Amino acid sequence: MIQSPSGQRVDRSDLGALYQNVMTLQNQGKTTVIGTESIANQAVIHLIVDGEFGSSVSGVSQFQLWLDVTTGFPLKVISYK
């Protein structure tokens, strides 16, 4: 896992929590790749992660994510209950 000189780790940040929640929901449902799009002139991959009927993680049953093609960093995230 990535760790800064001050000791902060990605897995213990808001970003780390987001990735953990997305992966947990993926394990309880399905992931659909919508395709490549552009946000602010950056190429992104648009994904939808749906939990199975009745499943959620921290109250979220669906994530839409737009991940930078090069880094995988989320440029946009929408969560649905």
Describe the structure in brief:
This protein has 81 residues and is an alpha+beta fold. The protein has one helix at 14-27, and strands spanning 29-39, 42-51, 62-68, 74-80.
What does this structure look like?
The chain has a four-stranded antiparallel β-sheet. Helix content is 17%, strand content 43%. β1 and β2 form a beta hairpin. With 81 residues, the protein is an alpha+beta fold.
Task: Set down the secondary structure blueprint.
Elements lengths: L13 H14 L1 E11 L2 E10 L10 E7 L5 E7 L1
Antiparallel strand pairs: 1-2, 2-3, 3-4
- Helical residues, percent: 10-25%
State the secondary-structure class: alpha+beta
Q: Ranges with pLDDT <50 over ≥5 residues?
A: none
Overall 3D shape: flat
The average pLDDT score comes to 85
Note the beta-strand portion: 35-45%
Largest sheet: 4 strands, antiparallel
Alpha-carbon distance between the two ends: 29 Å
User: Would you give the CATH topology?
Assistant: outer membrane lipoprotein receptor (LolB), chain A
User: What is the CATH architecture descriptor?
Assistant: Clam
Q: What is the helix/strand order?
A: HEEEE
In DSSP terms (H or I, runs of 4 or more residues), the helix count works out at 1
Features:
four-stranded antiparallel β-sheet, 1 helix
